């Protein structure tokens, strides 16, 4: 399963959700993170996965389940996403 988070370094919404992402990573979820505001390659990758769903960051996608989340969310919602629910 591939869990991806696309974020911007100075994005306030990304900074708000960062502790939740770190908690999930400590619990064993392998979330790959891609900074998009300063990395053009990652920005293009975001466009590929986003497909117009969000149009911004933070953007989370579970490539196995196809489930995605836009914006900063609660621990419960992000954990369910990580589990493919």
CATH hierarchy: architecture: 3-Layer(aba) Sandwich
Strand order of the largest sheet: 2-1-3-4
What is the CATH C level class, in words? Alpha Beta
Q: Provide the helix percentage.
A: 40-55%
SSE succession: EHEHEEH
Spatial extent as radius of gyration:
12 Å
Report the count of strand segments: 4
Weakly predicted, low-confidence segments: none
The termini sit apart by 13 Å
What's the total helix number? Answer: 3
Could you characterize the architecture of this molecule?
The chain is an alpha+beta fold. It has a single domain (3-82), classed as Glutaredoxin. Helix content is 40%, strand content 20%. The protein contains 3 helices and 4 strands, in the order E-H-E-H-E-E-H. It has helices spanning 12-26, 40-50, 75-82, and strands spanning 3-7, 31-35, 59-62, 68-70. It has a 4-stranded mixed beta sheet with strand order 2-1-3-4, with helices on both faces. Helix 1 crosses helix 3 (75-82). The longest helix has 15 residues, at 12-26. The radius of gyration is 12 Å and the shape is globular. It starts with a strand and ends with a helix.
């Amino acid at each position: 399963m591939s869990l991806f988070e696309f974020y911007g370094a100075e994005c306030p919404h990304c900074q708000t959700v960062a502790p939740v992402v770190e908690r999930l990573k400590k619990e064993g979820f392998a979330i790959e993170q891609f900074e998009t505001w300063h990395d053009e390659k990652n920005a293009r990758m975001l466009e590929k996965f986003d497909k117009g769903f969000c149009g911004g960051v933070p953007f989370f996608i579970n490539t196995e389940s196809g489930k995605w989340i836009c914006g900063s969310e609660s621990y419960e919602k992000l954990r369910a996403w990580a589990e493919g629910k």
